[in-house]
User: What shape does this take?
Amino acid sequence: MIHCLLIKVSHNSRGLPVRSYHTLTCDELTLGRGAENKVHLSDPRVAMHHAVIKRLDDGQPHLVAIHGELEVDGAQQQSVALTHGQRVMIGPYQLTVEPAPPDVDLAVSLVLAHRLPDDYQDLKSRTREPLSGAAAFKRRLALWLAGLTALVFLGLPLAQVLISSFRTTMNEQPMGFDRVWSPGRISTAHQHFGAQCANCHQVPGQRVTDQACLACHRDTAPHIVDPALQQHAFAAKGRYFLHGGVRCIECHSEHKAPYPLVRQYNGVCVRCHGDIKAVNPKSLLPDIHDFDHDHPGFKLSFKTGPGEQDVERIAQADKTHLKENSGLKFPHSQHIGLVQGPGGMSDIRQLTCASCHHPEGKEMRFAVVSFKRDCLSCHADRLEVGPANATLRLPHGAEQDVINVLKAGAPKQFARYSETLKSDGCGYCHDMVSPAKDDPLPWRVTPLHITQDWFSKARFNHASHRTQRCQSCHAVEHSESSADVAIPDKLSCLRCHAGSSPKYRRIASSCMSCHDFHNPHVSSYGGGGANAQDVAPQPR
Amino acid sequence: MNGNIFDYKNYRYFKLATAIIVLALAVYLLFEPAVGHYGGSWLGYGLGTLSALLVFWMAWYGVRKRRYRGTGATQGWLSAHIYLGTALLVLASLHSGFHFGFNIHTLTYGLLLLVVTSGFFGNYAYMIYPRLMTDNMGEDNLDALLLRIADADKLARQIAVHMPDDINNMVARACRETYIGAGLLEQLKGYRPDCPSALVVQQLASMGKELSAEQRKMYHELYSIMVRRQSLVKRARLDLMYRARLGFWLYFHVPFAVALLTAMTAHVVAVFVYW
Assistant: This one.
């Protein structure tokens, strides 16, 4: 049995403590939220049957937890001995063991130490404003982003450009801070030094100069053969926007990989050739803008002598003069298709272009036709004189050699055989000329001038056209004379090629598709660049 | 009468933006340099200059909208800001020639992309959420909802005191631990996965069997209070979600716009220093 003095402490309206005293006598003093408890603690934080005060085996009163929790100095305990001064938290209530008066065994006080908060204020404290702190966050983020961008992409590169000591230091590094300014991939040819921008961009704020290019390309020859014209065409002040002349990079633009360094568009050529008189008033060339529009008809280069410069240029439109004078008699029409060989009717042979014209190299340029390789198998009898039982074989070579063999082999028939050779032997294929008065030989063969490079100012790649039949460009089936020229004209090209823009079933072809830029090495006759032939003669 | 920012003055800025886009596309398709489109061609410089001017003008809107006086109506400025911003995206894309790399130029384009797309989301938010907010809140505001939730808390606790411990504890926990819009993610989602308010309703449904007749009556009352409370909490969270989403895009739009101005300055300086 326990005689307990229960002191309930509440607070009045002024906040002062008010103590009410109750004496309870029972075996077990239950505390809880339920109404059946001896000590009723009406608070949702207290369990229905929270704890009980009872004497344990040692005879001392203890506070023992039932369904609730007991807390002493912040630590949870299942059972607490109620000695003088002990304080225990029962939910929000604090139980304190007070000095017991003589008529009771135990005196405890109960006070509500933690009041329930105000519901609204409590809930409001657990409710956040939307995007609280957004303004500060935005400001910080903006400053960080702007600062970082300014430092990495503006400050450091600019410092490298403007502070010479810093630039010197960075030049020794594999890559500078200004690398982040690179607008695109550098061409393969320049990649080995492209990581250091200052190699080309030598003066800040100034466009890349030709000197920067020429620092490496020292052996680059002038683009135009005539130095005066070169100077006039490339350094003409006022003809170009913002600067005095044409700089290297206008045609060789960098940071555009995988596009080639050499620009492949007509604008580069048309800049001068669109109004060629403005560049060179003496020029005889017409103005050209596009292959499809105002490109003139082709001119063919006829070989006229043994020298490299012995070339005559004749327009294809000039049909009167467009005749090849090679010194040979050769009808193409008799050398195509099924032909009769030297064996007569039983020796029928199939001849094609490739029987005599042999392509060589990647570009399929054609080797010079050789008598020994290409003609002899059918025309061996043209080098034989005399009856069948005393045939004299003559060499294919210089006239003197033929005459010598003839004099030695058939001295009695020399005059007759010589005449035969003149009309039906050598003269069968070669044009013959009468010798000069003091010439010891009775006749001579006209020197051969076989044209190999018809388009000496352009580039033609047979390999690129190998899908076509030869006759689709070279109409030789009905050619009866070796004077006929079977080189395709501009209209023939335009069947498959258009100008700088592609057309229906015609591919785009820029100037660079056929011409190299004033490049003297293109032609075997020595001249792609502007030269004397294209310029009117100086008045004397 | 003016409707809204989208059809301002009979779609004046929509028409202007469309004309700019069509013109830019036409020029882009018709005049292609031999080495493909790039920022340094005459067309590239033209598009770049126009884009840069537009960026500065767009940024000026941030200043203009904070002023009560200025040229033209703020509504017109916003309408132009939206439509010309969209046109700006096309102009800048064409200016780039679609060449990208690890450099200041692509960074500038990327920032522009972020700024414009976040602006698109802002447009979407302002088109959708104000109506949804009205649908959700009616004539209430958040404080009124919180007051009603607090009332429900008090009532629920008073009833729960007379209920068994597990029910009482659950109710007390729900009242004590209901957070509304606790973090940015929750505000944007408008949903809290382990919300005690929802949990208590779910668990209460299966806990009424072992109660006395008197408790059962209170239990029914408690249950309906908690259901009502849960719906109030949901509405409060939705309200926060709409308001958060309305403002969230500005987290990116404004700071990235500032970064864009810096990057664009660096882009222009880079072009002309290494001309």
Residues 53 and 458 of chain A are 117 Å apart (CA to CA).
